[in-house]
Fold this protein.
Amino acid sequence: MRRRTIVIGAGLAGLAAAFELHLAAQNVVVLEASDRPGGVVGSRAVGGFVFERGPHSVLAGAAHFRQLVEDLGLSSRLVRADPASHTRWLWRHRALHPLPASLPSFVKTDLLTWSGKRRVASEPLRRFAVPDVEPTLGAFLDERIGAEASRLFGGAFVRGVYAADLDELGARSAFPGMWGLAVEHGSILRGAVLRSVARAIRRPEPLPGPAFPRSALVSFPRGLQELVDMLARAIGPALRLNATVQGLERNDDHWLVRTNSGGLAGDAVVLAAHAHTTSELLASARVDVDLAALRTIREGDVTVVSLGFDAAELPALREGFGYLVPPVEDGRFAPAPRALGSIFTSNLFPQHAPAGGRSIASFYRGADVRQLPEGALIALAEADLGLALGTAQPPRACAVHVERWTDVIPRYAPGHDLALAQLEVDLAVVAPDLALAGSHVGGVSVDQVIATGRAAARALHVRLQEERA
Amino acid sequence: MMAVLLPAVYATSAALFAGAVDADRERAARWTLRVALVLHAADIVLRALRVQEFPIVDLWTTVSATAFSTALLWSLVARGARHSGSGGILLALVAFVQFLASSFVELEPVARAVPLDTLRIVHVAMSVVAVSALVLSGLHGVLWLTLFREMRNRRFGFLFQRLPDLDVLSRMTRRAALAGFLGLTVGLNVGIALAHSLKSPGFDYRHPEVLLSLLLWVHFGVVAFSQLIPGLGARRASFAAAGGLVVLLLSLFLMLLPNPFHVGA
């Protein structure tokens, strides 16, 4: 008899886990509390526009994403972002400025003072001393590139990725790659250059599907919903929507999942829900592990306001990817957009807007903004866009979509990585037939979330096979 | 001279904060506030030296000390939040309160008939700090509600442009409430201990003044820790902080009425 694995949560991690088990011909059931799979990943078509609910694109060099897309037979559907849209903008001194993308542009930029530039340039000359305790990302970057560049560039980037402040995150936990460069090479910049050289020499394995540059951004003609739809189709009837998990019990050699429609027994469980839900379920199952890594994790609220315009309404729309608003410009001195930043989505993927249409997506953080009525959020995003583009009157959108997310982006505080690693080690001992997946486990990017799902499924599959043997 | 100078410097710093649209102007506003605080502190110290005792001796010296404490606490809370957008409004209120205090305070300081002992000084000083912090918390709660209303009604005018984000305002509300909660914890306990040790006639936990003070303590404790209380979001916490202002004013009014165990300021 095929053993059954229950996947709790049909976000991208849960779907990827279920798909992996499906490929291994395992009996799998996926339980999702909401009425649609995909979690924060998905798209909506409104008036000819494709609006993303959460993430808007994925790096073409994201290996786990590319492999999943290939396994699903979707590689031919991948579309690359317009190469002309690579310019990123930053709000500073009451206007948008292009982010320096090369050494000459860094030297010329008005975004930093000369002393700020000197501090960044001296980073490779100052060897990084690994502290005993993981510093916050703010402290780490302040030390490496100076407070000016840290707060401006680092602050804006972190708001764009985590919807958080620099001092809320642990340097190693939130950006292990950058931390690794500093530890291994004594400097972030030196390490980055050496890594680029090494990659150029070694030439990494080609990824499946179209040969896009690894730094390019990709999506699908109908948005990332295509990925979710294909995963859901592959999993088939094993995906049960509107199935709220109310508790988890362990009876001898199997698990019992209590849902709003009854109990469900399984031999293994993948917990791919929110960190706090996962923690509650593990507590209800009386799994004897320290759950602090899950309980203490803070997850941010994000509201995405997507707007579609007639091109004539947005004559001042810049070229490029979009803009970020750094924390020091939070309206402290002068009017500034309230958004964390905006993506000029139709610049990236013209196919996501009808002919003669332009679209943008603005991101807002916090539970407070989330409470605003939809009309107010739209007006706020329009006002922000008018301010950012320097138009006398805010542009008026002809198509809108508002998505409010609660507890959606985990913020890895200092020490999170070690606490989580310990939790996974403990779980492997006391509950080897249970695995964790999701953004709180291995990173917040689409690629990392897919990786956690597939890795969790593979680990369980191996363990189930060993048990059978 | 201080009577004229203090409200004028506070008012100037309020105007500068309200009009600060770049880093230079904000720096000027911050320096003006520092000057006001130093002058005010010097005034309090000089009064203490002249009366040779704790300088809060009557209603108007209490009001003046509260204005000083409010301005100082605001500068700390704003620094913690990295945002001075509420400075124009808050410091305008401080300037007005100091104007009233300067108008009525005795120019020639008068000493108390019986100087305060250390415990009483702690009780009075912590109560002043607590009242200032609770006023700050309440006003930031009002600002949160005002900004939310402005945004809900799609008005993105002066207030929207000057005030910090809603989450920053709610953080400032909570931090000020925490300062008030801690100040009240010390002030109340010392006051109650004093009442017991001196066997103050008429002291009773059921006395409206004591009850209101305890209610304030619990109320702002809830506001301070609202983030940890399920179901108590920023909006409810702001309503609670703003409502706490009313309780605070009532409590201060009761303190002014004669009662057997408390002679007010």
